[in-house]
Amino acid sequence: MRNFTGNFTQQEPIPQAGIEAAMRVMQHGRLHRYNVVEGEVAEAVSLELEFAAYVGAKYCLAVASGGYALAAALRAAGLEQGNKVLTNAFTLAPVPGAIANAGGVPVFVEVTQDLVMDLNDLQAKITSSGAQFLMLSHMRGHIVDMDALMAICDASGVLVIEDCAHTMGANWNGVPSGRHGAIGCYSTQTFKHINSGEGGLLVTDNADMMARATMLSGSYMLYESHAAGAPKETFKDISLDTPNCSGRMDNLRAAILRPQLTGLDLQGVKWNERYRRMEMGLRDTVGLRLILRPTEEYYIASSFQFTLPDWDKDKVREVQKRCAARGVELKWFGGDKPTGFTSRHDSWRYVDAQDMPQTDHVLTGLMDMRLPLTFSLDDCDLLAAIIREEVGAVYQADC
Q1: Structural domain contains residue 2
Q2: 398 has a pLDDT exceeding 80
Q3: CB–CB of 263/107 below 8 Å?
Q4: Are residues 101 and 191 part of one domain?
Q5: In whole angstroms, how far apart are CA 344 and each of 4, 93, 108, 338?
Q6: Which of 27, 234, 299, 389 has the fewest CB within 10 Å, making it most exposed?
Q7: 374: domain CATH number?
Q8: Number of Cβ atoms within 10 Å of the Cβ of 294
C-alpha cells in the first residue's frame, strides 16, 4: 500500500525574473508605490497597466489583499451601512467578512451540487430581500452560468461584484472572469494563481467606482500617477468625499507578480492537466461524485473537489481520516467547527443565522484538496488511487 509524501502547501519558487525585479526594488529602497524618482514608473503602476490589459478592463487598482479589494469594491459601488448584499452560502470567510467590513448585511444564496450559485434561489432572494448588490464568489474556481446570472441581475437592477480569488485567468464563454459584473476582484495570496504572499487587484470600466476605490486605497492626492486609473476630472469631488482606508500594494509585491502574470496562461494549462488527471483517476468510483464542468467554462483548477452524496457525517469523516493516514490532506466543509481556512455559513456568528438546507446537504459530503504545481502528474495518479481505495473501503463497509 503506497502513501503520499508530498506537501500540499508548497508552492513553486518565484520566477527568476521576479526575484531579480524584487532585488532591484530592495536595492533602491523605494518600496512605496508613490516613492519614485523622475522618469521612473512604479512597479505597482506597471502591474496595474498589465493586468488591465490582460483582462480587458479600462481601469485597475493594486491593493493589499483580495479581501481588501472586495470591501473597497462594495464601498466604491455605493454600498451604505445596513444595505443587504447577496452572496454564496458556500464561500470562504473573507467574502462575508468583506461585506461586514463595508457595513453590509450578508444574505446567503443556496449553491447547487456542482458548487455554483443556485440561480432559482438567487431570483427568489432578490425578490424577498430587496438587495441591490451581489458579491458573487467563484468559489474554488467553479463559474456559474454568467449569461443567465447577469440577465437576472440586470433585470432586477442588482449590481454584481465578482470575487475572482480562485478564477484569475479563467473565463465564461470567452469573457474573462471578473468582467461580467461592474467590478472584478482578485487575490494574489500565496495559494492563488499568482503569488505575492498577500495582495489583490480590482478592475472596472466605471470611472467613478475606480476613483472611489483609489481614494479608499490611500492615494492621498497622488491619483494622477495611476496610469491605469480613472481620469483626473473624475476625482474633483470624490477625492474630498472619500475616506482614506490605506490598503495599497507596494512595489516589492508588484515586482514579484509581474513575471508571474506573463506566465499565467501556461501555468493554467499545467493546473488543468493535474485536475483532469485527478478526474480520470476518480471517474466511476462507487459512492463518489465528480463536479460537472460546463463546456462554456474555462477554468484554472488550482484545487480539486468531489462529493460523497448522501453519506452521513461519520462516514465522510472516516474517509478524511483514512486518507490523512496515507498523506492525503482533504478539507471537509461539512464539519461542525471551522478548521484552518475551512469554515461555513453557520460558523460566522457576526452574520444572522440563515436556513440553507440545500447548501448544508451539499457541504456534508464535500471534500476539497489543494493541487499545487509542485505535484507531478504521477503524484496526481497516486492521490487519486489513494482516495479511490479509501472511499471504496468505507463505502463497502457500509454495504
Answers
A1: no
A2: no
A3: no
A4: yes
A5: 28, 8, 11, 7
A6: 27
A7: 3.90.1150.10
A8: 14
Rounded to the nearest integer, the mean pLDDT of the chain is 97
Residues in Cβ contact with 127 at an 8 Å cutoff, skipping those fewer than 6 apart: none
Instruction: Give percent of the chain above pLDDT 70.
Output: 99
SS3 for 88? Answer: strand
Residue position matching grid coordinates 440553507: 356
* Tens-digit pLDDT profile for residues 261-289: 999 999 999 999 999 999 999 999 999 99
Over residues 149-170, the mean pLDDT reads 98
Give the burial class of 373: count Cβ atoms within 10 A of its Cβ; 0-12 exposed, 13-18 middle, 19 or more buried: middle
Whether 5 is in a domain gets the answer: no
Cα distance between residue 351 and residue 89, in whole Å: 12
- 185 and 296: one domain? no
Enclosing domain of residue 304: 264-397
For residues 303 and 141, the answer to whether their CB atoms sit within 8 Å is yes
Q: What angle do CA 309, 314, 315 make, to 5 degrees?
A: 50
Q: Is residue 8 part of a domain?
A: no
Q: What is the pLDDT of residue 399?
A: 59
Evaluate if residue 206 carries a pLDDT over 90. yes
What pTM did the predictor assign? 0.96
Paired with 303 in beta bridges are 370
User: Do 225 and 133 share a domain, yes or no?
Assistant: yes
| Exposed / middle / buried, residue 175 (Cβ in 10 Å: 0-12, 13-18, 19+) | middle
Residue 63 β-bridge partners: 200, 248
- Please give the single-letter amino acid code of residue 98: A
pLDDT, tens digit, for every residue of 252-265?
A: 999 999 999 999 99
The per-residue DSSP string of 136-169 comes to EE-GGG----HHHHHHHHHHHT-EEEEE-TT-TT
